[in-house]
Amino acid sequence: MDRINTVLRRVPTGVVWVGGLVPLAWLVWAAASNALGPDPVKGIELRLGLWGLQFLIASLAITPLRQTGLNLIRFRRALGVLAFIYITLHFSAWVVLDMGLRWDEITADLVKRPYVILGMVGLLAMLPLAITSTNAAIRKLGGARWRQLHRLAYVAGIAGVAHFVVLVKGWPPEPLLYAGALAILLLLRLSRRRQAA
Ligand code: HEM
C-alpha cells in the first residue's frame, strides 16, 4: 500500500478535476448533437443527478478507505465540490429545462412532492460544505468546527439516496445499491467514533 500511496502523492489533484468534468463535457456535446434520445431533458436531468450522487458517495468513502491504508485524502475536496457542481446543475436543469421557470409549479412541487423535498434537503445540506471548502474558510472555522460542519455530507448523502429511492417506482436495484453503499459508509463512520470514544 505504501508504494500505491507514494504514486498517488505524485498525482496532481487537477487530474480529478479534469476527469470529473469529462462527463459534463460529454453531456454538453451529446445534448448539442441530439444524441440523448427522445427525451433529452430527462436524459440531462437524470445523468446529472446520478453523477452528483456518485461523486458524493466517492467523497464519503475517502475517510473509511484510510483504514485500509489507502490515502486518497488529497482528492476528497475535489470529489465533494464536483458532487456539489453536478447536483446544482441537476437542480438547475429541473428548474429551467423541466419546469420551464414556471415558479408557481416549482414552489408547489417544493412543498408537495416528497422526492423534491428530499432532494432540496440534500442540496441545502451541501451548500455550507461548498462554501467552506476553501483553505481560508477551513482556517477561519478551525479544524474541529470544520469537521463537525462537514458531517452534513452524510445528511446530504442520506437525503440524496432517499430522494432516489422515493422517486423510482417499484424496487429496482440501482437506488438500493447506493443506499447499501451509504449504509456501509455510515456504519464504518459510527464504529470509528465508538472506537475513538
Ligand atoms: C443531494 C441532492 C440530490 C441527489 C443526490 C439527486 C440524485 C438524483 C438521482 C440519482 C436521480 C435519478 C437518476 C436516474 O433515475 O437515473 C434523480 C432524479 C431526479 N431529481 Fe434529483 N438529486 C438531488 C437533488 C435534487 C433536487 C434539489 C431536485 C429538485 C428540486 C431534484 C429533482 C430531480 C428530478 C425532477 C428527478 C427526475 C425524476 C423523474 O424521473 O421524473 N433532485 N436525482
Provide the descriptors you would attach to this structure in a database record.
globular, mainly alpha, 197 residues, binds protoporphyrin IX containing FE, single chain
Structure at a glance:
It contains ten helices and no strands.
Describe this structure in words.
This protein is an all-alpha fold and 197 residues long. It has one domain (2-196). Helices cover 81% and strands 0% of the residues. It has helices at 2-9, 14-32, 40-66, 76-98, 103-112, 114-131, 135-141, 143-149, 152-167, 173-196. Helix 5 (103-112) packs across helix 6 (114-131). The protein is globular. The relative contact order is 0.10. The mean pLDDT is 95.
State the total count of DSSP E strands.
0
- Helix percent band: over 70%
| Unique ligands | protoporphyrin IX containing FE
**SSE order in H/E notation?**
HHHHHHHHHH
What general outline do the C-alpha atoms trace? globular
| Main structural class | mainly alpha
Total DSSP helices: 10
Tell me the count of domains: 1
Q: Major sheet, described briefly?
A: none
Rg computed from alpha carbons, rounded to a whole number of angstroms: 18 Å
Low-confidence stretches: none
**What is the CA-CA span between the terminal residues?**
28 Å
In percent terms, what proportion of residues is strand?
under 5%
What is the mean predicted local confidence, pLDDT?
95
